[in-house]
């Protein structure tokens, strides 16, 4: 009797894994651990209506396991919407490995993770994400073929992701200022990782003034020297008087505290899940007359690049497909203005309609 009561308490707790899965409509969550290699990972499959769930593997030193679960659930749901709005025959999934990507990596850990990916028999296809490299993908590939972004194939998706973000930014600038030239525009770029660096390259090549911050000082200094960007503090980035705030790091950075500090008229960047609460902060952004480019739409270049590898498409096809993010962004902004609905809601409906049609 005691065992039955204990099970009931776990499964009805609003913070339980199953309750969270139900609230976000996930199909499957796989928890992975291996004492020998130190692997602790979570794979979340959100939706496979349009095809196998494709999404990257992120390696991050989370504060706790609950934070890792929250992140992987949100990210995998975002991948469903990203693949749907990009008109790709893919569902949404994501994986997180709990650990420090600078100190905890080894071949055995990634190969063991690859075995867990393989156990899903193609329901989930993995790729690179924050903290994971093409070398890591090669190690995973030794244990499973359900992996993309390999050296010699589509490779690092960052350049295509960044190009799509750049095109989305130009569409936002045109909607806000009347033309899409970035010359003389001021940008606050949060995050100088793989994608952030390529975004900064596009911006500075067009004559934009870039302020940048990042948690890794060596990378920050290198990017600033290479592209002529101005380094600012991690917290200072929110207070700058700029035209565009460009989040290219982690999510939930558009929240009650930061939104009251931002002095921009556009938020457009590569980070996933930028709105801490999309219903609250998506509307708050609109009420402040800030154009928000829905993250899963504007940063879809990476998954487009991965789909090109899965479907046997060329690199040129991937870049042309990523360029279409300009037109999708324009459509979403126009829909938002016409109907007085936040941009995130317009983008969500576009993705959801495609999934419903497929069902």
Please tally the helical runs, counting DSSP H or I stretches of 4 or more residues: 15
Q: State the low-pLDDT regions, or none.
A: 1-12
N-to-C series of helices and strands: HHEEEHEHEHHEHEHEEHEHEHHHHH
Distance between the termini: 42 Å
Strand content: 15-25%
Mean pLDDT: 93
CATH class of the largest domain: Alpha Beta
Stated plainly, the CATH topology of the largest domain is called Rossmann fold
Q: Based on DSSP secondary structure assignment, what is the total number of beta strands?
A: 11
- The CATH architecture designation of the largest domain is 3-Layer(aba) Sandwich
Superfamily at the CATH H level of the largest domain? NAD(P)-binding Rossmann-like Domain
Radius of gyration based on Cα positions: 20 Å
Give a summary of the structure in a few sentences.
This protein is of the alpha/beta class. 48% of the residues lie in helices and 16% in strands. The chain has 2 domains: 128 residues, Leucine Dehydrogenase, chain A, domain 1 (Rossmann fold, 3-Layer(aba) Sandwich); 201 residues, 3-Layer(aba) Sandwich (Rossmann fold).
Explain what this protein looks like in three dimensions.
- A hairpin with a 4-residue loop joins strand 1 (28-34) and strand 2 (39-47).
- This protein has 15 helices and 11 strands.
- It is globular.
- The protein is an alpha/beta fold and 359 residues long.
- Helix 4 crosses helix 5, helix 6 crosses helix 7 and helix 6 runs parallel beside helix 14.
- The chain has a 6-stranded parallel β-sheet with strand order 8-7-6-9-10-11, with helices on both faces. Strands 1-2-4-3-5 form a 5-stranded mixed β-sheet, sandwiched between helices.
